[in-house]
Amino acid sequence: MKDLYLVFMCPRCGSLRYAKEGQKTARCFKCKYQVPINPRRIKIVYKTDSREQAIIALQKLKMKQGMKEEGQTKLF
Ligand SMILES: [Zn+2]
Fold first, then answer.
1. How buried is residue 69: exposed, middle or buried, by Cβ count under 10 Å (0-12/13-18/19+)?
2. CATH class of the region 5-73
3. Ligand 1 centroid vs 42 CA: distance in angstroms?
4. In terms of CB atoms within 10 Å, which of 2, 12, 67, 75 comes out highest?
5. Domain limits of the chain?
6. What is the rounded CA–CA span in Å between residue 61 and residue 15?
7. H or E segment and range at residue 25
8. Kindly report the CA angle at 59 between 56 and 63, in degrees rounded to 5?
9. Distance 35 CA to ligand 1 centre (A)
């Protein structure tokens, strides 16, 4: 059986990371929150059976998110 990787958002700070499906929790690198890997409680933005794809998707999403944040800070 192939593993499934989930890219999701931390419900507390919104930072992105990935975890293997079946994992119960994953600690957020940013706010150290122990994120429950439960589709009902977190926002899963990407699903793949390849770890490489999960990492690529994560980087792309982070880049997008980074651009958004940059745009927001310009308002101040
Ligand atoms: Zn977080």
1. exposed
2. alpha beta
3. 11
4. 12
5. 5-73
6. 10
7. strand 25-27
8. 140
9. 8
